[in-house]
Please model this.
Amino acid sequence: MQATQKWRDHSATVNIVYSNESFSIDHVGSSNLKEQGDQIHRAYNKNVHALEDEIEKRLYRASY
Model:
């Protein structure tokens, strides 16, 4: 599954791969996040961590 978040003049696209046991979030691309090689603006990491937390919360709720 691919997801894109846009805010102000920035955007980030990730690929979310999942199974019954786990999930991963992989960087696909970004715009205006100062991406250079393996470096990217800290806002990207903040947003990916928030996405990860939200997925984990929803998985936890769905299991009960």
